[in-house]
């Protein structure tokens, strides 16, 4: 028995020595790794138009333009200096193709590049608002959600202008895909940044036909900024409008997702006062009344610092003054939340702040009856709020 085990051990070791890696693997130098993908309404580039004039065309409708960001760029061999000026060259290259199938477009790059493109390291997908207004997100993302090469953690964003423009930067050596993904990590500094939706979450949302938000991004002079969120209607899969930056803040307060940031308002003399958020928490309570209609109550608590006040003679060391300022900040937060509630319940008639999720936990049987027409139900659902903001200190201050 011992001799048999010893032989099996040596045989296993010998087999390991003969292994050369995955049989289907490709050397990274033989691939074009794309880290970002954008989808715009169809608009062939000048290069594509020239190709078509020379006979480079195939059967298609120009419904969408897909742009991919490939890294590393291999145009200058091992050097990243431009031959003419010696300046640092971009570490990436963007290439676009227009058609009516995302997969076919990606395969079409094979007749323009010397290496096949592969999405193992895709970090972010940006879809233009115009296209989301015209086409269902289910159709635009169908290939992405089916493809095993694309990671389920890929971030999905919406752009106000051309999505391809978000993959440009004036900062040398920077890769736009990594920059966009890195911006989401700043939530501890600014609650106007959404947690973000990744591909695995998008699949579940679309399957449930739930309305949701995509972080909106705007571009100017090769710089980008997060600017509110695009509302995607669950039953249609299309964009129906935008929420502003302060609405994203309000949602974070309601859901208890505030990680940091500020709350700014004005005192009775219209002078700036700013509250720095040190901690925040919330609780959404759901119940169903005797008429089988849902009701919600949201309790929000926060502690923070009076960090800035302009031309205000009040002394922060005085209890009465701090209580007055707490009331001013509470009033401002209440205004923000009520504005959001009006947009959700009256303007867009959607629920994108987590109320349905809470109802499904606390009243699962009732939720089953309401989920198929939840947006409509929520538009007439009463929601009350209890807000408590406490100023715990006022920074370094000398009377």
Radius of gyration in whole Å, from Cα? 27 Å
How many domains is the backbone divided into?
A: 2
Averaged pLDDT: 89
Taken from the alpha-carbon principal axes, the silhouette is globular
Biggest sheet record: 10 strands, mixed
Q: Helicity, in percent?
A: 25-40%
Structural class based on helices, strands and sheet pairing:
alpha/beta
- The stretches of 5 or more residues where confidence is low (pLDDT under 50) are 21-25, 75-86
Content of β-strand: 25-35%
Calculate the terminal CA-CA distance, rounded to whole Å: 88 Å
Description:
- The model is unreliable at 21-25 and 75-86 (pLDDT under 50).
- The chain has helices at residues 2-18, 46-53, 102-108, 129-134, 137-140, 142-146, 176-183, 199-208, 245-255, 319-347, 355-362, 364-370, 374-378, and strands at residues 32-41, 64-71, 93-99, 117-118, 124-128, 155-159, 197-198, 212-220, 223-232, 239-243, 262-266, 272-288, 294-309, 383-393.
- The longest helix is centred in the C-terminal third of the chain and has 29 residues, at 319-347.
- It has 13 helices and 14 strands.
- The protein is 31% helix and 28% strand.
- α9 packs across α10 (319-347) and α11 crosses α12 (364-370).
- It starts with a helix and ends in a 6-residue tail after the last strand.
- The chain has two domains: 28-243, no CATH class; 246-399, Nutrient germinant receptor protein C, domain 3 (GMP Synthetase, Chain A, domain 3, 2-Layer Sandwich), CATH 3.30.300.
- By secondary structure, the protein is of the alpha/beta class.
């Amino acid at each position: 028995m011992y001799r048999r085990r010893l032989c099996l051990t040596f045989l296993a070791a010998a087999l390991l020595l003969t292994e050369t890696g995955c049989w289907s693997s490709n050397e990274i130098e033989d691939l074009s790794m794309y880290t970002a993908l954008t989808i715009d309404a169809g608009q062939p580039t000048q290069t594509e138009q020239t190709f078509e004039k020379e006979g480079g065309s195939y059967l298609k409708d120009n419904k969408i333009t897909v742009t991919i960001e490939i890294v590393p760029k291999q145009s200058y061999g091992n050097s990243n200096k431009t031959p003419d000026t010696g300046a640092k060259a971009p570490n990436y290259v963007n290439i676009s193709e227009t058609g009516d199938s995302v997969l076919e477009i990606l395969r079409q790059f094979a007749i323009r590049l010397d290496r096949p493109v592969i999405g193992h390291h895709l970090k972010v997908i940006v879809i233009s608002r115009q296209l989301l207004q015209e086409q269902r997100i289910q159709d635009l993302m169908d290939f992405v959600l089916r493809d095993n090469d694309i990671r389920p953690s890929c971030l999905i964003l919406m752009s106000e202008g051309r999505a391809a423009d978000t993959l440009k930067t004036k900062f040398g050596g920077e890769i736009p895909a990594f920059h966009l993904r890195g911006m989401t990590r700043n939530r501890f500094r600014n609650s106007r940044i959404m947690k973000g939706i990744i591909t695995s979450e998008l699949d579940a949302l679309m399957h449930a036909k739930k309305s949701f938000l995509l972080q909106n991004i705007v571009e100017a002079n090769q710089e980008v900024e997060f600017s509110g969120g695009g509302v995607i209607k669950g039953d249609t899969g299309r964009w129906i409008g935008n929420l502003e930056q302060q609405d994203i803040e309000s949602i974070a307060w309601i859901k208890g997702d505030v990680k940091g940031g500020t709350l700014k308002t004005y005192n009775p003399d219209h002078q700036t006062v700013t509250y720095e958020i040190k901690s925040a928490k919330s609780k959404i309570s759901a119940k169903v009344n005797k008429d089988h209609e849902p009701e919600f109550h949201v309790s929000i608590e926060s502690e923070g610092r009076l960090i800035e006040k302009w031309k205000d003679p009040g002394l922060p060391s005085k209890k009465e003054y701090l209580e007055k300022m707490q009331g001013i900040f509470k009033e401002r937060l209440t205004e923000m939340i009520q504005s959001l509630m009006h947009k959700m319940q009256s303007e867009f008639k959607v629920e994108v702040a987590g109320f349905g999720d809470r109802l499904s936990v606390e009243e699962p049987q009732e939720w089953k009856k309401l989920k198929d027409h939840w947006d409509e139900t929520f538009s007439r659902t009463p929601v009350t709020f209890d807000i408590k903001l406490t100023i715990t200190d006022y920074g370094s201050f000398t009377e």
